[in-house]
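2024-03-11 09:14:02 INFO worker-7 job=invfold-0412 stage=load source=structure_tokens
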């Protein structure tokens, strides 16, 4: 592993970890919403619908 003395490398690692963690959390949230009876809409779709006023 390259030492994290390079600030750019540290930023890249943090962004990469955040992207992976965000995707994983999004997947968990989507599956959690899908498990609710009568609710087949993902969080993103639900938020998009609210923004459109539908």
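2024-03-11 09:14:09 INFO worker-7 stage=emit residues=54
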């Amino acid at each position: 592993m390259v030492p994290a003395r390079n600030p750019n490398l540290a930023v890249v690692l943090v962004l990469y970890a955040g992207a992976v963690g965000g995707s994983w959390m999004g997947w968990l949230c989507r599956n959690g919403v899908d498990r609710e009876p009568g609710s087949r809409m993902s969080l993103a779709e639900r938020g998009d619908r609210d923004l459109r006023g539908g």
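2024-03-11 09:14:09 INFO worker-7 stage=report msg="The chain has two helices and no strands."
2024-03-11 09:14:10 INFO worker-7 job finished
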